[in-house]
Records
---
Amino acid sequence: MKIRVIDIGLGLLGWLVVAPSFAATYAGSMENTQWQVDASVFACQMRQDIPLLGEAVFMRRAGETQRFSLTELNRQLKPGQAELFSLAPRWRSVGEHYSMRELSVGDTDSVSLDWRDSQQLLQELIEGRQLLLRGDSWYESSDVVDVIIEPIRIRQALAEYQTCLSGLLPVNYDQVRRTSILFPGGTDEFDDSEQQTLDNLARYVLADPYITALVIDGHADGAGLRADNLVLSQKRAEYVVNYLIERGVPEGLIEVRWHGERYPIASNRSAAGRAQNRRVTVRVDRFEPDPEALARAN
């Protein structure tokens, strides 16, 4: 749906053909609104505070794709369906506003969009267009709530955000906290295909100061003698340990154990099951810092 307007000086929402019975509008002022960037190797955020409501955030976490979220600290939007509009830039005397799509308003983040939709929103903002989200009011079903996301000063923030993206780690903690390395039958060396997994693990551990331990467990399948399998599982675990140490992981963080064929995760009666059992697992333990304590320290 596209609506051509000749004069948009009637007010921000004057272009709508039928005005709502009551609309509460949440938007920042042109003087004070800005995009802020939070940058680290673990995550990049570009966010805009929306006074009296919450914030709009573009975020990409290490090892994941970008997402957009609208988070309400002061709940105003009712869960359900809402509509997203793109408004012509303020500086144009003639412009075109249009409806982009319907959105689902959730119970936690009001709106959450995947990388493709978030990129579309970002492109609209780069072009100087405002985004308007209109949904039902949490308090009165007959009323509506309008949320405005401004493009003001986004280009400078975007350059900082993109610099952050280029420095992200390849993985995040959730992706490395439980890692399995598989081994061919009868050997204590893993295939080259497993190296990237361990390289990414090592990079994460070296970057995160809150890692407390790496618990490494060697395993074998049920083929062969039990005593031989115990020795083989030890050699596999030690091979992974040495690989990580060579890539800078402190030896003092590592605890190593081996179990032979004692803990299968699949049936040893099939080749596929035995392939899953020939493994070394790495558990990454991490101390979760108290956000309030971190804020006081900084």
Note: The longest helix spans residues 226-246.
---
Amino acid sequence: MKRVFKGMMFFVLAAVLLSACSEEEEPNNFVSISGVPPTAVIEAGERVGPVTANISAADGLATLVIRKDGSTIETINFDGETSATHEFSYTSVDEDANQNVVFEFVATDSNGDSQTVTHVLTVGEIATVIRISENISSDQTWESCKTYILGDRIVVTDGATLKIEPGVIVKGEAGSGPNATVLIIARGGKIDAQGTETEPIIFTSVADEIEPGMIASPNLDADLNGFWGGLIILGRAPSSFEGDVSEKQIEGIPPSDSNGLYGGDDPADDSGILRYVSIRHGGSNIGEGNEINGLTLGGVGSTTVIENVEVVANQDDGIEWFGGTVNVTNAIVWNSADDALDTDQSWAGTMDNFILLCGSNTDHALEIDGPEGSYNDAHTLINGTVRGNAASELGDFRDGARGTFENIYFFGFADPADPETEGRGDLSLSGDASLANFENGILNFNNLEVTLPDGVSLSTVFRNGTDAHASEVALGENTVGADKSVFAGWSWAAVAGELDDL
């Protein structure tokens, strides 16, 4: 529908002049509105105001009453001032849709004389697509059955909570470099995104024609990436930084934006809740060889809840941890263009029950990096199923990697000894520090299973002695791995049949 005004509407309620007069005289009372017509048109859910009322009365003001459709919504009492101002604002609700809303501003002086100004607000249809272009600095709710467009780098700032209701679609506009669209939960901010098994919350691109109620994209393939940024959550939990500094700027965010800082000394820091969330087609390029991860977790604390998450077709890593202590339960990464899972800076949480579906551009299913400073801690990955690709490696454990990796099943990888694979298809330990950690029990592998290509030995795939903790099984005969049933119905990968052969 056509709009008379877009965004914020500013009304000026000018000069309410009230004065006592004799019975023979006409009251010299009037209220006028300047700058806006007596009517305006908005959509349901849009905010009107602030309305600034400038009022005066020679005999002293008593009250200003504001009514909506005849019902008083605000009363301001005065103490006989001869002039005053008052600001009023109103956010239309769904019940106002498709009707006229009448506001009356009634000013009364100490003699009981009054004057009324009326403004008629025509409210149109309920807005179902809302563009977000400014940071979120106070609590805000994104409502079910609606689509929200990220028009910029949007930050939920310190002290604010963004609640996203089940079934919401969030779409990022196209952008690269410093203009990449991304949703950032800054330190001290919170996200409360709790989808359900029947109504997941989906983050995707504006190029995606998906609408609330859909699971699979109706027009984008599941290997298209780089259309927007991604979701970044930052906290104050400990992280291991080079130089032993206490905080660092997260990759993907310009140094000029202090909302990109993460790290601290609170292991139990709380950044909110993610449940039943799917993140798709992200990884916008912000510089040469530098893209945004699907889900970035920087210094996120253990009180944060992350359960049932999916990342599909991201140009960089699917999920990357930069330190922190957060746990993640039930996660799928499908068609990441770099690594499926990447851990850095002494992340100290647990990933339990995960499925990695390597695509033709996936580099490593697992890229595990060691600490960068003197702070050392380790994480656990347990109960995972990893489907490979001829272009992918099982894992690379680098730069003093540490942690525990157990009950993981690998299949579908190439023969690393085949010259055409250029060494792809193995699990390796890189660097003396990683080798030493393996020998000293700081880096642990337990109960790994693999379905090997014909004629390939365990030691060819599991290098540096890690084959001692692996066993070969026939395809589908694995006794370890993920419980795929928890992904049924809500994840695109499950709906697309990508989990059928697991």
Note: The domain at 11-126 is CATH 2.60.40.10 (Immunoglobulin-like).
